[in-house]
Amino acid sequence: MKITPENARALQDELRTRVVLDEPGPPPGTGHLTGVDVAYDDARDLVVAAAVVLDAATLAVVEEATATGRVRFPYVPGLLAFREIPTVLDALDRLTADPGLVVCDGYGRAHPRRFGLASHLGVLTGLPTFGVAKNPFVFSYDPPGPRRGDFSPLIDDSGNGDRTEVGRALRTQDGVKPVFVSVGHRVSLDNACAHTLRLASAHRQPETTRRADSLCRRVLANESEGAPRN
DNA sequence: GCGACAG
DNA sequence: ATCTTGTCGC
């Protein structure tokens, strides 16, 4: 059956039962960290995904891969994964290196049904994943302290009086707006935040996201100006 | 019913 | 996400 915005929510509820939340994940500074991101050209119906593997100890680029596809799903808040994941999976498949821990541009558990992009990608690939988003989406938080490393809980208070912690607002640079970290698959929140801080030593956003973002934008620009596609 | 709402 | 130049500051 084709996935539509109507049945996508039910699919999320089903896939959510496969998320693993009781593993700490790889310790910071070891193995590989892979950033994934996507860029769109809606007018030309094009989508380009990028996967960039970094050495966790040095943050040096180990390998890059991209994939191009057609836009198959509209942007619907809460259903972002269905729009982004097909092309992201293609890009990951083109990697030779072990992706290690995957860092997504968006949410994991911080999602209306606790199954954001990072959770979805983790379940589909089996890889440890977490998400780092630029906005708090529908959640609330008290501003963390002003220094790099300060954080506060990201709260879902949409329920019946409950205030579930779904992630963290994490300050990655002194005096700069925090990023919003949440667990995807097979990683603890503490560990995800530790990785994020290491990856964001020079900028607000983690190096994984910055690298993947610039790569898919670059490729999309080339594809749009008539370069041969694959 | 209407508006808000990751990217 | 995307549309978009110069400009302020380290």
From TrEMBL:
Residues involved in Mg(2+) binding: 37, 105
Cofactor(s) this protein cannot do without: Mg(2+)
Record has Thylakoid as a keyword: no
Main location: cytoplasm
Any GO molecular function: single-stranded RNA binding
Protein name per its UniProtKB record: Endonuclease V
Record-linked InterPro entries: Endonuclease-V
Group of enzyme by EC: hydrolase
Organism: Streptomyces candidus
GO cellular component: cytoplasm
Pfam family name, one: Endonuclease_5
Protein role: DNA repair enzyme involved in the repair of deaminated bases. Selectively cleaves double-stranded DNA at the second phosphodiester bond 3' to a deoxyinosine leaving behind the intact lesion on the nicked DNA.
Domain of life: Bacteria
Tagged with keyword Nuclease: yes
E.C. number: 3.1.21.7
GO biological process: DNA repair
Family that this chain belongs to: Belongs to the endonuclease V family.
UniProt KW keywords: Cytoplasm, DNA damage, DNA repair, Endonuclease, Hydrolase, Magnesium, Metal-binding, Nuclease
Cell compartments where the protein resides: Cytoplasm
